[in-house]
Amino acid sequence: MGDDDRDARHPRDAHADGPSRLQLVFDHERNRELLAEWLADGYEVQQRPRPVLDETVDLCIVDEGAFAQYEGALREWKEAVNPVFAPVVLVSEERVSEAFDPDSWQTVDGLYIVDDVVSAPVEKPVLHRRLENLLGRRSLSKRLDSRYRRSEERFASLFTTLPDPAFVTDVDGTLRHVNDTFRRYCVSNGPEAVVLGESLREVGCFDDEAIETIQEYIATAIDGGRPDPAEIGLTTPAGEALTVDLNAGAAAIDGEQVVTVVLRDVTERVEKEARLLESEQRFQQIAENIHEVIWMTDDRGDLLYVSAGYEEITGRSADTLRGTHLSTALDHVHRDDREAVQDKFEALFADLHEGEWAETYHFEHRLVDTDGDVHWAEIDAYPLVTPDGTRARVVGLVDDISERKRRENELKRQNERLEEFASIVSHDLRNPLQVIDGHRSLIEEEGVTGDNLAAIERSTDRMQQLIDDLLSLARQGETVSDVEAVDLTTVTQSAWASIDAPAATLSVEDDVVVQADENRLRQLFENLFRNAVEHGTTGTRSQTHDPPDADSGTGDVTEIPSGEGLTVRVGALDGGFYVEDNGSGIPPDHREDVFERGYSTQDDGTGFGLNIVADIVGAHDWDVTATAAEDGGARFEITGVETA
Q1: Burial of 252 (0-12, 13-18, 19+ CB in 10 A)
Q2: Rounded to 5 degrees, what angle do the CA atoms 510, 514, 518 make?
Q3: With a threshold of 0.70, does the pTM exceed it?
Q4: Where are the beta strands (DSSP E) in 401-517?
Q5: Coil, strand or helix: which one is 577?
Q6: At a CB cut-off of 8 Å and minimum separation 6, what does 325 contact?
Q7: What distance in Å separates the CA atoms of residue 153 and residue 322, rounded to the nearest whole number?
Q8: Structure confidence by residue, pLDDT tens digits, 467-520
Q9: Contact 515, 485 (CB under 8 A)
């Protein structure tokens, strides 16, 4: 498959019913492939070394190298689909700042080439939310553009495909001239019938109310006035009831005052307006019955609409805000958050007026309802862009996230209690262990040896390992929030130094830099190395390096005493790394069980080591699998890793 057609296909083929289509245009091919793998489970991802953009692409993600090369193509795409919003996301190693905002991002007509900047590395949920915000804006722009196009089509239909009936009358209402369309609309006995010299009443297509309105229009026009718009009914010879509006103008023909009246058929418009009104009423009914708050302001911040959800969250009626400024809503914001929210709103409208709106505004704050109860609210605000590119409206969605915050705080408290518990248990267990170990040392100094003393030593060592593993497990609930570039060689050598295996050998096959939490990654390697030494040195391996028969359990094997001959290798994979040894390996039917908590094949094992590995892998959003090395030993492959 060539670079121009490397698409991560989604099970659904029809784009209209399927996921959003993302195009990745990266100068750095490996980063492009990694990001494609990351996004493929939620989007239809196209990988391109150069942009191939049309209206079917929903969002384009570029790195700095590709943006520098294809800025013109990105601009052409956005201008070609305008006013539909075509979002472009720039992935950059540089942090977003005022200085990092090139003028070249903005096109001549005010459109921005870059709509959002993502600073690598970024957590997957954060990237997903930012992409969804941009895709939501695109979806909204499509709906607005569709409505605008329907309006244009209706206008063209009324003025182009349906010629207007028109007639000229004198001041007495006698018909002087009519056009063919008027005859077709109003004359029952054919277009050739003579109607000139007749009155409108004699024509027969208008009822008394319509004739009275037309006569008022004629009189106003004769007096030099401009009649107010009016609509009247018209019945065609076929009995079809139409609605037409009136336009009248007076003129002098051959010294005689006459009035030209044009009837414009607005039946379709009236019907569409009725349907649109019905649709808007349904929308308002929906908006008034959802829990979230929807609000809309003009470009000055004056509120045009506030949904009924405002009352549900704050206890205040939405009617108290309609027609006021957005700042009025700050009254319900918690006093400790009020200044920050005010700054957000001021920045929002400043960016709106200056045409520098970079991204959806998203922030959280506390609010106080009329009963004095505190709620947490999440706000997303974005501009509505008119077909000419003008940002004249701001729409906001407010969601009550109090329950989510409560769960987050409860989880934080649980983690704190677990940490406290683990520390207490560790302290209470280590104290008697130190006493036992101290007395054992005294006995050894007196020259006493034997199996009982060796048993004490093994038990104290095992309890010490058990305490260390329990502490590690107690802290696995901590998520990985800050990752950095970590050199694999450095971290593996540091981890190997903590392993007691003087007769074993570590070999780092590749020099790789990965994005990870360095401390957690070191712990992962320590547990994998300890597992290799403990199981590999006390297990068996084939003299010919062929794996033993999994079914019979037989084979030409020999013991490996004290780590002699054991080699642990670390190397790079496509999107990750591996750790393998030349020990006895893991039977195929046990490879999924080794990561379970408490699982161990040795009587003195804690069964926590590989479970800790699985937890660390999960915290990084990676994957781990156990398999066999080429020489029959154990091999662990960690994938889904972002490398540099």
Answers
A1: exposed
A2: 110
A3: no
A4: 484-487, 505-508, 513-516
A5: strand
A6: 300, 301, 302, 303
A7: 33
A8: 766 666 665 555 666 789 999 999 999 889 888 788 899 999 998 999 998 888
A9: yes
Hunting for tokens 């244009």 — which residue is that? 152
Residue 3 corresponds to which tokens in the numbers above?
């670079």
- The C-alpha atoms of residue 296 and residue 381 are separated, in whole angstroms, by 9
Where do we find the tokens 């547990």?
Answer: 527
Q: What is the CA radius of gyration of the chain?
A: 38
As a whole number of angstroms, the distance between CA 229 and CA 251 comes to 19
Closest among 199, 192, 189 to 167, alpha carbons compared: 199
pLDDT value, residue 604: 53
Q: Is 199 helix (H, G, I), strand (E, B) or coil?
A: strand
Tally: H helices and E strands in the chain = 14, 25
Rounded CA-CA distance 142/384 in Å is 11
pLDDT < 70 stretches in the chain: 1-17, 95-111, 151-163, 189-194, 252-255, 273, 275-291, 356-358, 360, 385-389, 417, 420-421, 423-432, 435, 447-463, 465-466, 468-481, 536-564, 597-608
Q: What is the C-alpha separation between 92 and 88, in angstroms, rounded?
A: 13
Encoded amino acid at 288, one letter: E
| Per-position DSSP letters for 519-558, written without gaps between them | HHHHHHHHHHHHHHHHHHHHSEEETTSPPPPTTT--SSEE
Q: In what order do the strands lie in the sheet with 231-235?
A: 175-178, 166-170, 256-265, 241-253, 231-235
* Helix (H/G/I), strand (E/B), else coil: 180: helix
CA 17 from chain center: how many Å? 18
Report yes or no: 269 and 154 within 8 Å, Cβ to Cβ: yes
Three-state SS for 273-338 is: HHHHHHHHHHHHHHHCCCCCEEEEEECCCEEEEECCHHHHHHCCCHHHCCCCEHHHHHHHECHHHH
